[in-house]
Amino acid sequence: MSRNTLNTLKDFKLSAGQKGKFYSLPALEKSLGVNVSRLPVSIRIVLESVLRNCDGKKVTEEHVKQLANWSPNADRTDEIPFVVARVVLQDFTGVPLLADLAAMRNVANKMGLNPKNIEPLVPVDLVVDHSVTIDHYREKNALDLNMKLEFSRNNERYQFMKWGMQAFDTFGVVPPGFGIVHQVNLEYLARGVHKAGDTYYPDSLVGTDSHTTMINGIGVVGWGVGGIEAEAGMLGQPVYFLTPDVIGVNLTGALREGCTATDLVLTITEMLRKEKVVGKFVEFFGAGTETLSLTDRATIANMAPEYGATMGFFPVDDATIEYFEGTGRTADEINAFKNYFKAQGMYGVPQEGEIDYTRVVSLNLSTVTPSLAGPKRPQDRIEIGNVKNNFTELFSKPTTENGFNKAAGDLTNTYSTSNGVHVKNGDVLIAAITSCTNTSNPSVLLAAGLLAKKAVEAGLTVAPHIKTSLAPGSRVVTEYLTAAGLLPYLEQLGFGVTAYGCTTCIGNAGDLTPELNATITENDIVASAVLSGNRNFEARIHPNIRSNFLASPPLVVAYAIAGNMTVDLMTQPVGKGKNGKDVYLGDIWPTSKEIGKLMKFAMNSKVFKANYADVKGAPGKLWEKVSSTEGQVYNWPKSTYIAEPPFFDGFEMTPKAAATGITNARALGVFGDSITTDHISPAGSIQESGPAGKWLLANGVQKADFNSYGSRRGNHEIMMRGTFANVRIKNRMIPAKADGSAVEGGITIHQPSGQQMSIYDAAMQYVADGVPTMVFGGEEYGTGSSRDWAAKGTQLLGVKAVICRSFERIHRSNLVGMGVLPLQFIGDDSVQTLNITGNETFDLKGLEGEIKPQQLATLVIKRANGDVQEVKVLLRIDTPIEVDYYKHGGILPFVLRQLLAA
User: Fold this and answer.
1) What CA–CA distance (Å, rounded) separates 726 from 539?
2) Under DSSP, is residue 757 helix (H, G, I), strand (E, B) or coil?
3) Angle at which helices 789-796 and 809-817 pack, to 10 degrees?
4) Pairwise CA distance, residues 593 & 366, whole Å
5) Considering the entire predicted model, what is its pTM?
């Protein structure tokens, strides 16, 4: 029965003669005498959830009143319990999450309790999109061959997913081959509004991928969390967070001819990184926002993690409704969606002055220029006319200035592989149209197809040694590129459809040829990748490709033709066409009118309906052939992919006392700024010579069958060995090379022996000796993907605390969720100013008694020469519920105790 909290349960008009019930924010405004209508729209949607789920226990009227009284510039001390409508997963994070749920059922079973007590309380959808690799390309059957390899490599994982589908009532799987989770979410899973009984409420979610924010483009509140936080949300625990600042972005004007949504999102990413929006909501408004298509908005929302925000939110308006119509949602769904938001007073894009934001940032869309981002971070935007100079400068700059530390004279050297391919620094060796960020957007994909058509007609080609691929985020993309007559031209340039999945953007580019790899490593060549992705962190795309650029799909094709990043596409020819004629970018760049003429092929509701009907009706023979076990409790057959996780070993209903301090700890690693979750827990290839590779070989797995770290996340033995194993990570404990450059790779110096060894081996030695460890970092520690294994692996290595200058939002939360203390230096204190080298021992004091959110603690630095220094550090356990999580040893034991006690 629905509660009528604060007399807000009202009727609203659905369609002619029909009504539905809803928790009315206008009624709440009257009841409380608060001007709710001036709150940011994103805050109002969260407020509706708090109001609707007010049960007097986890969610109280006080919570409702606190959020209704949100003030733009108040201190952020109120904790919001946000109950989401659903949870969405991708398979790299979804498989370990499923393993945790299965392990919880094992605990319940051993205690003589009903395993079905462990059951998701909201719908959960897992989209399999991270497992396919580009092994085959530039051949007719590449798509089919890559999918067959995917299924052969991941059979054990897919069997486990199928067990989950029959074991958990609300757990569904979108099988491989349908697309990327965020595009599938946008086109198919998102409902606009949900209905429970006769009560309607807005869609909301968390997802185990940082780019879950793409859904903000259709007015849905949602963001990425780690798998451990998603598990808690699935099992009935609200998602707790501090009331956020909300930054309003006032978009004015319109994009100029020749500019794409990719250029816009790279500009916004650069701008908002400088505005320091980490942990804040960002909400777009203004006349310029109204000019953007829904898919352009989704592109901008998608990259919220890159600009650091919790969300990049766009309100619901006519463009949203048109998108729902074009993607095949039913008339009843669309009417309910539109009329609900109108009844709440939340329909339409707000204009300047209508909403009270923490602060407002403005961008005139007409100032956006064609751009790329790179070569190492997505926020490092480069205007296209500066790409050549930028690469040339970074080539010889030291690594401390983000450079490659090469002799300037080597830039133009030519090297030959053993099979006769000539390679230079800056050569494009991977060119990939990839990633949900762009493949969900018909305007940029049609632009790529039109550019390919003009290029082919002009006689341009792509060198055969360049690894080219087209991996759409939905099968619908292939349909409209085919209907528009453009796919054959992309295929002629090597951009045939190779997969439906994340591929190159997640690190599944597949390998280069052995000859290319050998030549790159022997000559230390700075080779390049150009991709239409959202991440270009070091070693993510390929371990031997050091310069990686994000670009729009048409620019990916253009740079593949040009072949090298030192070609200035604004002044130099893209290449030579028929009769040796120089062809320039302007000759082949499509006009907005040309793109607009073909958009009719992209929004065909019948195509969308037919495609997604196959998810349940015809998932494919490969998926149908996957066998599985049945039953409510998993029996954990021997596997190098799936193993029972150790996080509940020794579980008891009463938690052990949380540590009140740390004594005589050693540094496991001392790192610089922008250490990403890719550095901490790689997703890509597994090195044969590393601890994880050695373990696989010892367990009978051949190098050809290693697969990736991401696909092996269901096995903790591999993942803990892969923690801090990125080939490009730089541990400052290791002395620099003779030329001053940093040594790369997951190595450290064990103390007090002084022996250099892998971080994993040192960690295991410290654990065996009973020595606690700490990790030190700089700014933006944990930026990047929402991978909980970056926190799980840290915990399994015995790390008790991570101390740095600042944390990225999700990783900080994940550390708390695994019972690892996140601590932050205060003021100007840093690894450098405190001269922390890694040969010290450390104590942490000040956590005795009752821990309080964001309290101060004392780091005691005991140097090798006997000197002792004490500095204050900030405890980044931010909320009261996080204190409880830490006391219980993490969020999973906390939730399990609640469920088993119920």
Assistant:
1) 7
2) strand
3) 40
4) 17
5) 0.91
